[in-house]
Specification:
This protein is α+β, with helices and mostly antiparallel strands. The protein has a domain of about 170 residues. It has twelve helices and 16 strands. A hairpin with a 5-residue loop joins β3 and β4. The longest helix has 21 residues.
């Protein structure tokens, strides 16, 4: 969700919001009761190049400590490893390796790939995930909001039935820096949501949703991963994606959605000689990535700096929050399953996102976690790494930044209108700032 710009108004309000959000993170550090020095900047860089040979050999992590016997190169090798039917691929799937959908400009980045989501409304107007007939109607894949593009055998190929008339495309997301996002305390996101209401006089009101932590049954946390904030932990996000995007069953998602065309035994992702399954290596790889860096040369120009002032003053930063501080090292999160390490704790990140759900008029009608009011809401897309994106918005249908801004309505309509009132020179300055991200 690229939040737009407009005439220079509400200067003090939005500058106050940016400062307040940073202070929220700082206060969260003190509340945990762990003695800490002041927060430091998270390391930045596109430093996980995709190589045909010696996967991960040139990669540099953010300093995350590896499990006994593991290496960051091995984590990346697993992330880039292609699968086939003999290693658990399918029977229905979208890609053969994690890196297929998360690569631009390096392993872990976003890409041009989209996935299909579908469903319908019941008699009470509530969203119901699709039921997809396969094998000429002899079998059905039920409760299926995702529709896979590929299959191992023709009999398993999914097609959207006419009855499933809610249909949407979703872009594959960037995962670089997501270890820091995982380490944001819930209270920080809640404070951002409250500040938005106060700063915008109620026009902007991001929603934080509690979602299950798959690795901690019975526990929940504020979601922050996926277009619907459907996951709160990286391991949950990864385990779910391994099944839904590649068809590889694992300890968090142990059953395939169909057995037609299946030749392997569940779960297909089993621990290696280090005691780590693929999903553990994937999580270690993503948690070890650095945050997407700025184009420092462009960011230093007068145009980009003027554009940043416009971005803040006219309301874009209300949702696209520039600075957040992660929880202190030693903080226990994910229902007790993960402790924030030194490499990720007490770090200042610049995601240009609040990781909350908003209705800006582009909602796809899909509900992945209750409540039903999330149907027409989407997570604020983080703008870090924006300059590497040739297409924009959740469906990748916007081919220019100005087009993406113009699509903003609902909660963001007043900000979009301010963008329209900018002079051509100011519009270009704002776009220059965005292109430095």
């Amino acid at each position: 969700m690229l939040n737009p710009a407009g005439k220079v108004v509400c200067t003090m309000t939005h500058k106050w919001l940016s400062v307040a959000v940073l202070l929220v993170g700082v206060m969260a550090v003190g509340l945990v009761g762990v003695a800490q020095q002041g927060p430091t900047e998270a390391p930045a860089g596109f430093e996980t190049p995709t190589l045909a040979q010696n996967h991960g050999a040139q990669s540099v992590s953010n300093g995350l400590v590896e499990p006994q016997g593991d290496t960051y190169a091995l984590d990346q090798t697993n992330f880039e490893q292609p699968h086939d039917a003999s290693t658990g691929l399918g029977p229905v799937f979208n890609a053969r390796a994690c890196v297929d959908c998360h690569q631009n400009p390096v392993s872990g980045g976003a890409s041009q790939f989209t996935e299909i989501r579908a469903g319908h409304l019941d008699a009470n107007g509530n969203f119901v995930a699709a039921s997809v007939p396969i094998h000429d109607g002899a079998a059905i894949i039920a409760n299926r909001s995702i529709i896979n593009d590929r299959a191992l055998v023709p009999e398993a190929q999914e097609h959207i039935p006419d009855t499933e008339d809610i249909r949407a495309l979703r872009a594959a997301l960037n995962t670089l820096g997501d270890g820091f996002v995982e380490a944001i305390d819930d209270s920080t996101l809640e404070s951002i949501a409250q500040n938005q209401i106060e700063a915008s006089k109620g026009r902007i009101h991001g929603e934080a949703v509690e979602v299950p932590v798959l690795e901690s049954p019975g526990q929940s946390r504020i979601g922050r991963f996926g277009w619907k904030d459907q996951h709160s932990s990286l391991l949950s996000f990864i385990g779910d994606a391994y099944l839904n995007e590649m068809g590889v069953t694992n300890r968090l998602r142990p059953k395939d959605v169909t057995t037609i065309g299946k030749t392997t035994t569940d779960p297909e992702d089993v621990p290696d000689n280090l005691g780590l399954a693929d999903i553990d290596h994937f999580a270690q790889f993503i948690r070890g990535t650095k945050v997407p860096p700025r184009d420092t040369a462009l960011a230093a120009t007068a145009a980009a700096q003027a554009g940043q002032t416009l971005f803040e003053n006219i309301g874009c930063s209300t949702c696209h929050v520039s600075s957040i501080v992660t929880a202190p090292a030693g903080t226990v999160i994910n229902g007790g399953a993960f402790t924030v390490p030194e490499a990720l704790g007490n770090k200042i990140i610049h995601p240009y996102s609040d990781f909350l759900l908003h209705d800006i008029g582009t909602g796809d009608g899909i509900v992945q976690n209750p409540p039903q009011d999330t149907a027409n809401k989407l997570r604020t897309v983080p703008l870090w790494g924006l300059r590497t994106h040739p297409r924009h918005m959740h469906d990748l249908k916007s081919l220019t930044l100005e087009s993406a801004i113009e699509r903003h309505e609902g909660e963001a309509e007043h900000v979009r209108n301010r963008f329209r009132e900018l002079s051509p020179e100011d519009k270009q300055a704002l776009l220059t700032f965005l292109n430095s991200l």
